[in-house]
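Bumping with the actual sequence this time:
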Amino acid sequence: MSPSLSFGQTAGQDMKNAGTETKKAAKSTGHAVEKGTTTAVDKTKEGGAVAVDKTKETSVKTYNRSKEGVQKVTDPDAHAETKAKNRTTEANMEAKDDAKRAKQKAEHDKP
């Protein structure tokens, strides 16, 4: 009789390897979930900031247009000057908001 050769692992070794592989897979999945959650939080924050900025801009523009309409009726000479000031203020506000959004996006995209 010849001695039998064993090519496989023992049942204990198989179980240990399966446990290690399961642990690695769970860890990998956890990292993917964490990354996805972080991305979702960042995108939600960016979306919220954009919504707040746009709401603010719209409110300011609406207020300015109302003020300009009243002024056009009550003091037509001052209307053009006020209108120009309002447009400048609005343009500066939009530029500032755009810069803030760009900065947030750059911070988010940093590795």
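The tokens above came from a reply further down the thread. The CA atoms of residues 104 and 110 lie 10 Å apart.
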